[in-house]
Design brief:
This protein is α/β, with parallel strands linked by helices. Helix content is 39%, strand content 16%. It has helices at 6-16, 110-119, 122-133, 156-164, 169-178, 188-202, 213-223, 233-243, 260-269, 296-300, 310-320, 331-361, 377-388, 395-407, 413-425, 438-445, 463-474, and strands at residues 28-33, 39-43, 47-50, 53-56, 68-72, 75-78, 205-210, 250-255, 274-279, 302-306, 429-433, 453-459, 478-484, 491-494, 497-500, 510-516. Helix 16 links the parallel strand 11 (429-433) and strand 12 (453-459). Helix 1 (6-16) crosses helix 2 (110-119), helix 5 (169-178) crosses helix 6 (188-202) and helix 12 (331-361) packs across helix 14.
């Protein structure tokens, strides 16, 4: 068999890289803690709180993704020597200098690495893999010393003085290693743990990742598992895969995860198709959708739908089949009310502009610090400016704000007619992932699902999905029914220390998938 040519591999390389390579102003980014699990979703344009620290992300604009940055004060600086503090020590505790001119933090060129890999034979590849997983002899011995908490020569006051002298985190960690009387006799593993523990305390390293379904889901999994119903990123990938979501599809999403799945579906569809998001309560809560950095065309295809609309729509489709209904009555009155409200805002804005012009042309030489009501003129002027600020919007912004207030919930005006029409036209994908029992929702949503369409039901507990499975099986409504649970375990992959992680999550939820075959037709 011929080995693949370098030209073919190089032509495929740019296609493997997706997403922006640099951080843009106003984008949401994921700040992942380099020394431990945990991350934050922040916006790169102004100062925000990250844990207990208030940081400024404006310096990250234009910087590359996936790089490591160190938090110094309130600002982030790009780190080029992340691995410099992870030094290699011999038996005597002396630092072994690396003879290589290239820094260990320098990443190899991708094209050169591909050429080198293509030039390797199968025997060389097998030899490389065998050497990678061979357990190397461990230097040092931890049994010859006792932990009496007296090995460190530097006191807390000395470390404080080092910080006052302007030493960064890496230099402080190096000083702690040099002033530890037991560091040199520890084993290699113990030395690596010591360095990692000290770096976590004295160096705040973060990796900046782009906001996508995987990074956002992982962030909420570690930060607030209850908010996303213990959903892991691998289970989210299965939901998108089994549902067959693609550009141009008509998808119904019933979720209670603050828009995590809705944003992931919109992220994949890229503004083509239709997303009907069913919510319970007075208004939808999709704050996570903002973290996906979606374009306006991607958000326009999302239509919130009250859960109370499913029952009437299912009854209509059961009687008449999929159809395009007539427009709802009283829409002209709703549009007329919208126009009157817009005219009222226009008149109020013009009146405020006239008052501002008159106020700028007149001066009051007898003005005092306080007015008749006892309020200082500066406070009154500031209060008037704040009260007039929303009235100075442009026509487009004003119309958009009014439109959002009237139609964001799908309960009024043209949005209500759109919901009425979309539901009766049906959908070809169904995703249910809510904290409520899914069986009553499934019974209504199946009438709105086209035959031969896939559906996915996610729940953090098994029993609700068993009820759905038995219902679909007894009524013969679906084929390829699969009730599954994915067992995920992370592994530590370090030289000579390849092993499973000690702590892991028991489950990431359960999944019921299948293909809907349609409602049975009674035999005459």
């Amino acid at each position: 068999m011929e080995e693949p040519s370098t030209e073919n591999v190089e032509s495929l390389t740019p296609k493997m890289v997706s997403g922006p390579r640099t951080i843009g102003a106003g984008q949401h980014v994921v700040m992942k803690y380099a020394q431990d699990k945990g991350s934050y979703i922040l916006r790169a344009d102004y100062a925000q709180k990250m844990g207990q620290t208030r940081v400024n992300l404006i310096d990250l604009v234009g910087k590359p993704f996936t790089e490591t940055y160190e938090l110094k004060g309130r600002r982030f600086e790009l780190v080029h020597d992340v691995n410099n503090s992870e030094m290699v020590f011999g038996e005597d505790g002396d630092e072994e200098e690396d003879d290589k001119d290239e820094s260990p933090a320098v990443k190899p060129d991708s094209e050169a690495a591909i050429q080198q890999f293509n030039a390797m034979s199968n025997a060389e590849i097998n030899q490389y893999l065998n050497e990678l997983f061979v357990k190397k002899p461990v230097k040092g011995d931890n049994s010859v010393y006792a932990d009496t908490n007296t090995a460190q020569k530097l006191s807390t006051a000395d470390i404080g003085k080092l910080r006052e002298q302007g030493l960064n985190g890496a230099q402080i960690v190096k000083s702690l290693m040099e002033n530890s009387s037991t560091f040199g006799i520890k084993s290699d593993f113990a030395q690596a743990k010591y360095i990692k523990r000290k770096e976590k305390k004295y160096r705040k390293l973060y990796q900046v990742l782009p906001s996508n379904p995987a990074t956002i889901c992982e962030t909420y999994t570690h930060k607030n598992r209850d908010k996303v119903m213990n959903l892991r990123y691998d289970m989210l990938a299965q939901i998108l895969s089994h549902s067959g979501v693609h550009s141009g599809a008509h998808v119904m999403v019933v979720e209670s995860m603050s828009g995590l799945i809705t944003g992931a579906v919109a992220y994949r569809m890229k503004g083509e198709g239709r997303i009907l998001t069913v919510y319970a309560g007075q208004q939808p809560h999709y704050e996570i959708v903002r973290s996906y950095n979606l374009e306006p065309k991607d958000i326009e295809i999302i239509q919130p739908i009250p859960a109370t609309e499913l029952g009437p729509a299912a009854n209509d489709v059961k009687e008449k089949g999929f159809h395009t209904p007539d427009p709802l009555p009283n829409l002209d009155e709703e549009e007329e009310r919208l126009q009157k409200r817009r005219q009222l805002h226009e008149q109020r804005r013009e009146r405020d502009e006239d008052e501002d012009k008159e106020g700028d042309g007149e001066t009051n030489p007898t003005a005092v610090n306080e007015n008749d009501d006892g309020e200082s003129s500066g406070k009154k002027r500031k209060r008037e400016e704040v009260s007039r600020a929303p009235r100075t919007l442009t026509d487009q912004q004003l119309h958009q704000s009014i439109r959002d207030n009237l139609h964001s919930t799908g309960r009024a005006g043209m949005s209500r007619d759109r919901v009425h029409r979309y539901l009766r036209q049906g959908v070809d994908r169904l995703i249910i992932a809510c904290k409520y029992r899914p069986l009553p929702i499934l019974k209504q949503a199946l009438h709105l699902l086209a035959p031969s369409a896939p559906f996915v039901i996610f729940h953090e507990f098994l029993e609700p999905l068993v009820d759905c499975y038995l219902y679909l099986q007894e009524q013969e409504l679906a084929v390829k029914l699969v009730l599954s649970e994915t067992w995920l375990r992370e592994f530590q992959n370090l030289p000579g220390r390849f092993r499973p992680e000690m702590f892991m999550n028991a489950t990431g939820g359960y999944l019921l998938t299948g293909i809907y075959v349609g409602m049975p037709v009674p035999y005459n």
